[in-house]
Amino acid sequence: xxxxxxxxxxxxxxxSRAFSPAVITExxxxxxxxxxxxxxxxxxxxxxxxxxxxxxxxFALIEKTLARCGATLGNxxxxxxxxxxxxxxxxFVKLRGEIFADGCFPGSALITVSHFARPGIVIEIQGIxxx
Length: 131
Description:
About 25% of the residues lie in helices and about 30% in strands.
C-alpha cells in the first residue's frame, strides 16, 4: 500500500521557518536515512567550511539515496539538522524553503553542535522518508 502523507498546516512562524509542526503518514514503507555530510561537491571540488555549498550538496546526496529507494525529497517527513554555527540557521531555513518550494515541509529540528566527525564539515542532515 503506497503511503498517504499529510502535512499539518503550520502557523505563520512555522511556515516562515520552513517546517511543519507534524507530518501524518498512513501506509507505505519507512526509509531511515543516515546522517549526510560532505566536504566535496558533486563534481569532487573541495567545499570544506562552506556552509551553503555543503547544505546544497547534502540535499543532492540525500535525493540520490532516496531515488535508489523509489522516493524523492518530497517523501521526507522528518529531518534533524546539525550545524556548527548558529549564524547559519537563517540561511539554512531560506535554503530549506527553496528545496521544499511547494510548502510541504518535513518536521524538523535544527541543532547547533561544536564538532563533527571530520574537519571541514559544517552541517549534517539526517532524515526519515515514507513512500
